[in-house]
Specification:
CATH superfamily of the largest domain: P-loop containing nucleotide triphosphate hydrolases
CATH topology of the largest domain: Rossmann fold
Structural class: alpha/beta
Distance between the termini: 117 Å
Number of helices: 25
Number of strands: 29
């Protein structure tokens, strides 16, 4: 027959102590040694006794002697008070040393506690949890400053009211707020992997829920009899990690804090709830409240919440307002009635080349003089302001037709250097006429580089200087142009290789244009001459440094490149001036969103260093030079077709003389280099020939006939 355990005959704890020989009076020296040993190992002992303990540099905190999360019970871990503790949340706990703390936590009498603690100190338990101070901070939430007293705690529960997470709020003496989340399921500090909503039981029992940024605001509304919720982490919470399902088929009113982050959070939350809630409304805080004003403030001020929220409910459908806030426009307002009648003409800065009020790119070969041209353009735009009969010159391929103020930000040159340049290009003293209209800032004189946009690996942002610049630009009356010279000094993101960086940059520059009405021209470099031969507007576009997005993102791109030696010599001879390197430059619009002047213009450098448009003379020189006959052109096109069919096509590049079409035209028909180039340019422009891949394995390009002359 099996034996039966009779718990009525079990020994009491006092009888057990007598049986084990623990009822004798403990040795005072032994008690002191145990107490000192625990104090010397306080951080390790507390981490072992209370895994949920929160450590700062000199203290540990826990909710109570049961080891629950919280901060009411404070334990000193360093200094002369190491080992002393006090539970400020329980008046029945008087505190004491670590022996007493162990007794309270483990429900032990003093003699048994001494034996177990002696074993912990001497029989190997301590080495098993001999965490370094760094490891102790890694086990719990790292705190680098004294948090001060706890100012609030909020518990997240499941549908049955069981605590699954908590948030503790502190307001350190040195300022700011600190929130410590606690995962009650995993028994660790930090947010749960899937974050719950606050007040789930209340949410499940209500058809209308007010969604606040933080627990404090939600609790204030709940105390006023309204159903409210929030999410762990406030405005910065990753909504994709939050379980929003309790809000299914409910009418949700989002009450954001009255600040920028609050509005952004409201927009993100509204979109996240679009497939969950029955309806979503964003409550707009009153316009006269301070920044950061929230639902808790409204409750404290005793406002009529029902009236305020009733106004929110009568607003337009919230999804539309959220979409408008995020996208910046309402689709319904852009019907075709906005595009009826005659289209407005393009407003030009430089006629037919650079529009007014758009972001543009100005690229040039080294030595052409981008900064000279930028300063000249600034003076031309402002000079006519004081003298209405001023005869404006052509700059960047077009006559300057927009007049007003200009700001130039130069990141490379000193004040003296800019002064010398202005003196060279301004013998007529346009500076006096433009005084108060042109503002030239040599950044080396005022603090150095001024990055407006930063970022790396897909993460880009505008710096505080970007917004400050817009604020100051708005104060410039009749601003027509902002020149940024050179581009790479103002953008630290890799715009030359990362297309996303280029797209972000142009969207930011477009923001400047929208805010000020001015054109933004960014001066940029082309590849070093010799790396690629530039003989047309298309090849000039390819020579601009950077990704395709950098060029395509601009509303207009104007490029300057050195003319071929043969063209330059003949033009200089016609003009009766000595030929010098870089004396003749070609320029053209190489990218545009609207109708532009696509012709290649030719410039000659004057003694001042400025480029003067001599396109008419250059065209006359071209017309007096030998040209291909129709018979020669047809014969050459046949040769191009034959070479493509035979697998040895011509190339548009001069890298291989045997395959270079230009060399073939010169040799076969006895024509000049410039004539051969003109023929090729004409055929490319009319799409009679094109460059296509004929050997994909070798990645080799060749020329083929696309259409024959009619």
């Amino acid at each position: 027959m099996a034996s039966v355990l009779d718990f009525n005959n079990a020994l009491t704890q006092r009888q057990l102590e007598t049986y084990l020989g623990l009822d004798e009076k403990p040795d005072a020296g032994r008690i002191d040694r145990i107490r000192e040993g625990l104090a010397g190992s306080a951080p390790h002992f507390i981490a072992w006794l209370f895994p949920a303990a929160l450590f700062s540099r000199t203290q540990a905190r826990i909710g109570n002697t049961d080891g629950d999360a919280g901060t009411s019970l404070l334990i000193e871990t360093a200094g002369s008070k190491a080992g002393l503790w006090k539970d400020f949340g329980d008046p029945n706990q008087k505190g004491g040393d670590l022996i007493g703390l162990y007794m309270a936590a483990k429900r032990r009498t003093f003699p048994i506690a001494l034996e177990e603690l002696a074993e912990w100190l001497g029989n190997g338990t301590k080495p098993d949890i001999a965490y370094s101070r760094q490891q102790l901070f890694a086990k719990a939430k790292k705190v680098d400053r004294d948090l001060g007293p706890q100012k609030g705690e909020w518990h997240y529960t499941d549908a049955d009211g069981h605590i699954i997470a908590s948030v503790y709020r502190f307001e350190p003496e040195d300022g700011g707020k600190e929130f410590l989340p606690w995962d009650a399921v995993q028994r660790r500090y930090g947010n749960p992997e899937i974050r719950p909503l606050y007040n789930i039981p209340g949410v499940l029992q209500s058809e209308r829920v007010i969604f606040c940024e933080g627990e404090k605001s939600a609790k204030a509304l709940i105390d006023r009899g309204l159903c409210a919720t929030s999410v762990m982490g406030g405005a910065n919470s990753p909504l994709e990690k939050t379980d929003l399902s309790p809000l299914s088929r409910r009418d949700v009113i989002i009450w954001p804090d009255a600040d920028g982050p609050g509005q952004e959070f409201a927009g993100r939350l509204a979109l996240a709830l679009s497939d969950v809630a029955a309806s979503v409304t964003i409550f707009t805080p009153p316009s006269d409240v301070e920044s950061g004003w929230d639902a808790a403030d409204a409750c404290e001020e005793g406002l009529d919440l029902e009236h305020m929220l009733g106004f929110a409910e009568s607003a337009a459908p919230a999804i539309s307002s959220a979409s408008i806030q995020v996208l910046g426009f309402d689709l319904r307002e852009w019907s075709t009635d906005r595009f009826m009648g005659s289209a407005p003409p393009i407003q030009w800065l430089c006629e037919n080349t650079i529009p007014q009020g758009v972001p543009a790119l100005f690229a040039a070969m080294g030595g052409v003089g981008k900064s000279f041209i930028a300063l000249d353009l600034a003076l031309e735009i402002a000079a006519a302001v004081a003298f209405g009969d001023y005869n404006a010159r052509r700059v960047l391929g077009g006559e300057v037709v927009s007049h007003g103020s200009v700001v130039v930000l130069n990141a490379e040159d000193s004040r003296d250097s800019i002064h010398r340049r202005l003196e060279r290009i301004d013998p007529d003293n346009r500076r006096e006429r433009a005084n108060g209209k042109v503002f030239i800032v040599p950044l080396p004189e005022v603090g150095g580089p001024m990055p407006l946009i930063t970022g790396d690996k897909g993460e880009f942002k505008k710096t505080p200087r970007f917004e400050a610049l817009i604020e100051q630009l708005k104060t410039i009356p009749d601003l027509k142009l902002l020149i940024i010279d050179p581009l790479q000094a103002f953008v630290t993101a890799d715009i030359t290789k990362d297309p996303a960086a280029g797209q972000f940059m142009w969207s930011c520059f477009a923001q400047i244009c929208a805010a000020t009405g001015a054109t933004v021209i960014a001066c940029h470099h082309m590849r070093k001459e010799g790396m690629s031969k530039i003989d047309s507007a298309d090849s000039a576009r390819e020579a601009i440094r950077g990704s395709t997005a950098l060029i395509d993102g601009a509303r207009a791109t104007y490029a300057l490149w050195n003319a071929g030696e043969d063209q330059a010599k003949r033009l200089c001879q016609e003009l009766g001036i000595p030929h010098k390197p870089k004396a003749v430059v070609n320029g053209a619009v190489v990218k545009a969103n609207d109708e532009h002047d696509w012709e290649v213009h030719t410039y000659v450098r004057a003694e001042s260093g400025l480029l003067e448009d001599r396109s008419a003379t250059a065209q006359r020189v071209k017309q007096t030079t030998g040209q291909m006959t129709e018979a020669q052109a047809l014969d050459c096109l046949n040769k191009i077709h034959e070479r493509w069919t035979a697998g040895r096509p011509f190339s548009a590049s001069s890298q291989t003389a045997d395959r270079f079409l230009g060399a073939f035209i010169q040799r076969e028909y006895g024509l000049s280099k410039s004539t051969a180039k003109d023929a090729m340019d004409r055929w490319f422009h009319t799409e009679m020939i094109g460059s296509e891949m004929f050997d994909r394995k070798a990645k080799s390009m060749g020329l083929r006939v696309l259409k024959w002359p009619s």
